[in-house]
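Q: What would this chain look like folded?
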Amino acid sequence: MTVGLDSTDPAFESTWMSLFYIQLPVLFGIAAAAQVYLIATRDRDIENVAPAVELRRYFYLTMWLVVYTFTFYWTGSFFAEGDGNWHQTVLRDTPITPSHIVLFYACIPIYLMFGVGSFVYAMTRIPAFCRGISLMHVFAVVGPFLILPNLGYNEWGHAYWLTEEIFSHPLHWGFVILGWNALALAGVLMQIIARMRDLLPIVFENEASA
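A: My prediction, written as structure tokens:
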């Protein structure tokens, strides 16, 4: 990479800030539109969903969660590690660095879109998730979601407290704790499997008698 090492370079503005100004409205706009669509097309007779339809929706929810898991892992492994490496070598001369533009303002909004989307999908289309709030689902979505505001604390700390980019610094503990909340997805999976186990015999019986 030859562009972006110095935020005062005109090439930084034309290259990285142009990307920043484009991806913010596009990604957050897509995320907002997706939630509006899910709510607008919600099942208004959710208590009378046919077993086959409910079973299919559980498969759809599982797909939401699989993509959410992949995008979260993708963000935390490749781009978060790359961000730390960037600051250890180039250092930070502004809170908006090339690695931050990709990590904070692209990767995180992408996984939030699928995480929040999975929650809204479940609440608007699956009876069991509509009758009550799944605590495991809340942890799995809200924990990683709070990484976004935690970034503000992280940038403040690096500017006024700890300037070095060392992963074990207390500034980064919030990322670890909030990221660990994603492990609650295993609890959501157990809830899905338990209900699918009840639905499968009913669906097979209905198909056999049809």
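The chain has one domain: 10-42+70-209.
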